[in-house]
Structure prediction request, 130 residues.
Amino acid sequence: MRTKEGVSPEDWDKLNARVSRQDNVGTGTMKIRKGDKVKMLSGKDRNKTGKVTFVFPAAERLVVEGLNLIKKHQRARQQGQKGQIISKERAVAVASVQLICPSCAKPARIGHRLEGDKKIRYCKQCQMTI
Ligand SMILES: [Zn+2]
Prediction:
C-alpha cells in the first residue's frame, strides 16, 4: 500500500522499529532534541506545535506528541477482547519541523557556539541558550 506521501504506515512502523534499535548510532548531531517544542512545516498538521517525545538521529526523524497521527487497527489479543482502532504518532523528518525558541516563543534559527569545551545551542534571534 502506498499513500500520497509514498510510504505506508506499515513501512513507517518498520522504519521506526529499526531506528529505535540503533537509536544512538547517528553520526550527525540533531539540531532538535527530545523535549523541544516544534512547529510542523508540512503535512496535515502544518502550523501546529507540539513537544518532541522521541528522536531518531540515525534516520534524522523525530516524533512529536499528538501530531502526525495515523490510525492503526489493533486486533484482539485475547479471546473476549475487542479489536480497536488506535491513534499513533508517526515519525517525521527533522527537516519538516522547526524549533520554537522557549525564550522568545518564535520559530528559532539555531546557532551553535562553544562555551569552554561544551557546544551550546542558541537562538539567533534573541541570543538565548536553548
Ligand atoms: Zn529566541
